[in-house]
Hints:
Layout: E1 10-16, H1 23-36, E2 40-45, H2 48-51, H3 60-65, H4 72-77, H5 83-95, E3 99-104, H6 107-116, E4 121-124, H7 132-140, E5 144-148, H8 154-169, H9 176-184, H10 186-195, E6 196-201, H11 216-224, E7 228-232, H12 238-245, E8 250-254, H13 272-289, H14 298-307, E9 309-313, E10 328-332, H15 342-345
Parallel strand pairs: 1-2, 1-8, 2-3, 4-5, 5-6, 6-7, 7-8
Antiparallel strand pairs: 9-10
Amino acid sequence: MLTDKSSRVQIICEAGVNHNGSLARALDLVDAAAEAGADVVKFQTFKAENLVTAAAPKAAYQDRNAPEYRSQYEMLKALELDLPAHRALKERADARRIQFLSTPFDSASVRLLTSEMGMKVLKVSSGDLTNAPLLLQMAQTGVDLILSTGMATLEEIEDALGVIAFGYLGGGSPGPGVFRAALGSAAGRDILARKVVLLHCTSDYPARLEDVNLRAMDTLVQHFGLPIGYSDHTEGIPISIAAAARGARVIEKHMTLDRNLPGPDHKASLEPAEFAAMVAGIRAVEPALGDGKKAPTKAEMSTRQVARKAIVAAADIAVGTVFSEHNLVTKRAGGGMAPMLFWNLLGRPATRAYRPDDLVLEALDG
């Protein structure tokens, strides 16, 4: 699994198709991702003819960011990487000690990544969350899956997880009923918890801040109980850092070597120095997350002794004098009886004499 039991956030540098079809630029992206401190560098694996029809329109953001292409097919055909290129990228990633990852968009690409390259983790795009045959194929390979949930409802995510659980468990003919049964079984829930990460995502490039909805990560945790991350398509770095602070175990963010390059994703990507700043911000946040238990830290104990108040005498108090609101007060005194016991003393006789500012130390048994 990409995530581990530690509190370390796994940071995926989404190189995607920002190589513009150039292997040399793709290799430079691997280097830049490693130098920026990413844990993973991710690409996209597809054959255009297996992914889109010749007449498929471009998305609005693709029209905005890549007007030079007349169709989605034409754009994607220019962005393909073949098997030798994938092998070269994997070798470069290994040499740079960064994990190689890719998103397959068609059945042949799943086979390329798993059978030809031996990949143990695959990323599933938001666009394929409802693509049950492809989800089933990926799960049947036994690899771990990182599932983006852009554009999805809870019901669609649930359906997708049912397909994946069935694919992992095996047995029987696929169909809606057995998918639901697999998701509802203890074995299905257990294998999903071990092998699937959900990424909250807004599928717009760049995504508007008002569309981010980071609180949806909480909903995904409550509903599915799986490790959660965030795939960030906003401009800049604050939202990725905020998502990490909110508990994301995985952060995915696009990187480009030059935001002014032509292509669909460059405008929503960070340049290398910005990506490095994002990594530094996330790493600064991680130790501040803690374990969630509310208790004083070791460092606070000495401060507590000084900052908290105790019950002290407000005036001379003779033995037998009844304690009242007039002869007791609370002040910082470096120890003594907690002010929460103030009312327990009222009406009781003093067992010893006190001068002003003396700590009041009385036994309250009985």
